[in-house]
Amino acid sequence: MSLVLQILTLLGSLGMFLYGMSLMSGGLQKMAGNRLRSFMAKMTSTTFKCILTGITVTALVQSSTATTLMLVSFVNAGLLSLATAIAVIMGANIGTTVTAWIFALSFGAGSFSFGTIAVPLMALAYLLVSSKNKKNNNMGEFIMGFALLFLGLATLRETSTVLLDNEPVRQFLGGLTGWGFGSMLLFMVAGACMTLMLQSSAATMAITMVLVANGYIPFTMAAAMVLGENIGTTITSNIAASVANVSAKRTARAHLLFNLFGVLWVICLFHPFLNLLGGIVELFGFPNPATTDFAAADAATREALVASLPYSVATLHTLFNLINTCILVWFIPIIEKIVTWMVPAHKEEDEKFRLKYINSGLITTGDLALNSVKLELVRYGDITSRIVGFLREGIKAESQQAFQPFDDELIRYEEITDRFEKEIAAYLNEATKREMSHEATLRVKEYYRIIGELESIGDSGETMGKIIARAWAHEKQFLPDMKQKLLKMCDLLDEAFAAMHVNLETPSVEITDISNAEQAEENINSYRDILREEHLSNIEKSNYPYETGAFYMDLVNSFEKMGDFLINISQSVYSVKDLK
Fold it and tell me: How many helices (H) and strands (E) does the chain have?
């Protein structure tokens, strides 16, 4: 095998590993995403339950990023406090160590390896993916990801051994390990950089196990790489959160502080920490990886040491996160104050122009992304409802000068609703590029319709402001009776917005009907018909201001159109309930 082919095979096996990890995580999230969110919301009454929740959820979905996404949406929605989220993050760090133990098993002694059953599992996965049952499809995706993950890991281990097993490489790596504390820092930086480049601490952990299991680096340097991986994974999440909302940034900062503190104390107590680790490993009958001299050991000791090294790496990763959690769990209030200071909240005025629950930097599977979109739609609807208040005050204004500030607000809110529509649509577009179930694809279509209707309400508000402005420009003032009836229209529209809010906020599975929205829309239509008949009959009267009446009816018809947009939103929400 040529050198070029060996390198390409190594890169291909790494790609297979990363894709398998993504596919496996995506399949799990589709199968249990909503149930995991419900579990997380209920299991956070105490700090211990928060940590246990973080361990469980992260171990199941094999992705701390997915856990972080759920945490961010809960914090934003007020379902979890930041302090609670920090406790869950501590558990999530422990949960990530499950992946390391699964990898260690595949490196373990004996003839069995997950890689040996990977190809047969692909046959089963294909049958499940080909099924018409969506649950079977998601299960097949998970199994296919599992198979690709360990096939890639087996190929990575085999190829790297062929590629690196030569004297020049061993001499080069041996030279890097002879600088004492400098070597430790070097391998720590290498672990952080590899995690940052691969966007996966699991991939770097696998590479570390390959290197130490084949004797390319000593265990002490593998320990340094593990420390670097813990820093690298927090850098990845902080970069992703840099374009996100305040809660996402604070959550990412808390993750950074947790791992950074752990790395600092381990560096200060590096050898005592390795001695503690070695003592634990010896309890299970394996040689101490930190003190055993491989060159001077007998053949049996060497064989036992080589077999135990992957387990020792996994033990180190687990011990690091367990001790770190046991220390920092007592300082959660202080961590909360620090991250709040590091990431101050935006002013309310700025928040009107920002998405709060979703962002482009933290998307895993499309199914999980839609849970955040749901929260954003409720907020989008509430912001849009403020338009009615500006219309009410604009109608009551006694002069063009008094009306102008409310007209400016209507124009500004039209821009705000436009921006919300564009940003949510862009997020939905990105989400559809990820792994997504058939049901989620149908939900996306309805969400596109909802944001379109909300944006149309913003356009209508600006249009109605222009109608009032034209009336003032033509020196036409609405009669007191006209104003009272237009204000009654505002009240009816408020009721329609309230019904829309309830329907948007209610989980789809709990919606039994949308009679509240239908009744509100019927009230608007009926009142519009009454006002139209009155207007037509008043035209025949000589004292009726016809031109003022024309402006008046334009507003009445615009109110009715807003009611149509609102009932369309509730109908879209209700249609999501029956998606299959």
Answer: 22, 0
Are 20 and 52 in contact by the 8 Å Cβ rule? The answer is no
Q: Where are the domains of the chain?
A: 3-342, 351-577
pLDDT at 110 over 50: no
Q: Does the pTM exceed 0.70?
A: no
Contact by Cβ (8 Å): 13, 152: yes
Q: Enter the DSSP assignment of 278.
A: H
Both tokens assigned to 178 = 């002879």
Q: What are the residue ranges of helices labelled H in 45-114? A: 47-61, 64-77, 82-95, 97-107
Dihedral sign, CA of 53, 376, 255, 100?
Answer: positive
Question: How do the residues of the chain divide into helix, strand and coil, expressed in percent and rounded to 5?
Answer: 80, 0, 20
Give the residue with greater pLDDT, 464 vs 30.
464
Model pLDDT for residues 350-370, shown as the tens digit of each residue: 445 567 777 545 555 556 667
Fold designation for 351-577: Methane Monooxygenase Hydroxylase; Chain G, domain 1 (1.20.58)
Amino acid making up residue 308: S
- The burial class, CB within 10 Å (0-12 / 13-18 / 19+), for 88 is buried
